[in-house]
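ingest -> validate -> predict -> emit
validate: passed (alphabet ok, no gaps, 193 aa)
predict: started
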Amino acid sequence: MREQISFQELVDKVVNSENLGKGELSVWSGYCAPEDILGFLKGWDLETMPYRIWEYASAICFDRDSPPKDVNLLQKGRLFGDGGDLELLWVGGSFRWRFIGPAGISPPHGDFQAQDYWETNLHVRFHCYNETALLWGEHDGHRWYDSRVGGAVLAYPVEGKRVQLRYRVLSCAGQVEFVWYTGLEEWKEDGNV
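emit:
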């Protein structure tokens, strides 16, 4: 059954959302040399960001509380939870990184070219609202599988038949500026207990 989308409900969701700015969010970015990436990651409060998505040249791995298996093949990384969202992207010989999370968090000390977003965007305010997205695959009791991506090895660090990603959308002047992944959890629909 298809659900009709109400434009007014979408507008109300944004208009009535939290309004956050400097003092309510930490937003940082910078660069990190590949040989320093493991030390850089250890400098964050990883207990508050327990979920991992590691994208390699040949695979995407969803993990929990684990470092990347091979930094030499790492293309992207994402460490996330209620304590923040740290994103890594391999660009021209180094990792570009971006962090968004609760106020008062600073990046680890070191040569990571850290830039505080609020130094140049002092008066920006974001509308912030929560969303979820259903991930590929269904657990059949033995493995995760989805015929639409039959060759993909699906594995999620969450119990349940289906998994959803929780995230916060931060927009300004009608444009999405940041997306903060906050967690993975079992997806439940009405009657799916």
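Residues 7-15 form the longest helix (9 residues).
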